[in-house]
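Per your request, structure below.
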């Protein structure tokens, strides 16, 4: 397998923002905004479905730290945290990654979907999801 993110980590060629034993963060080649950062696990996991919970915790903790740094250092008024997992999600690199995109009022970009899915599923979807999670609707 030839994963671009694994190559960056292995060859130490990323523009590193943070490096740890479980998670790391780097600047992408074509950032959406100043301070745009990718946060990935150091070992290869394809997506959120493939990643062990302990690793996902480390990765999302680093996501939170990067977001705080963007707010404090870049004076961002918010961040978008973006992830695509699985073939139906438009995931472009099959290595779990989160985009942390600093945002400012009237910055000229929108990361919110403009349309609605044409896919239809019938029934009480909240109840079906609650059942799959093994819990009632209240928790």
């Amino acid at each position: 397998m030839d994963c671009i993110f694994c190559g960056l980590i292995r060859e130490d060629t990323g523009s590193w923002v943070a490096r740890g034993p479980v998670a790391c963060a780097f600047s992408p080649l074509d950032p959406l905004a100043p301070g745009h950062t990718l946060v990935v696990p150091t070992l290869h996991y394809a997506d959120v479905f493939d990643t062990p919970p302990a690793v996902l915790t480390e990765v999302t903790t680093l996501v939170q730290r990067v977001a705080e740094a963007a707010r404090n250092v870049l004076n961002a008024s918010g961040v978008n945290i973006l992830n695509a997992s699985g073939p139906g999600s438009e995931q472009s690199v099959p290595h779990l990654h989160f985009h942390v995109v600093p945002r400012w009022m009237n910055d000229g970009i929108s990361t919110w979907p403009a349309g609605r899915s044409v896919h239809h599923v019938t029934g009480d979807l909240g109840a079906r999801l609650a059942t799959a999670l093994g819990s009632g609707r209240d928790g």
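The chain is about 30% helix and 15% strand.

Regards,
D.
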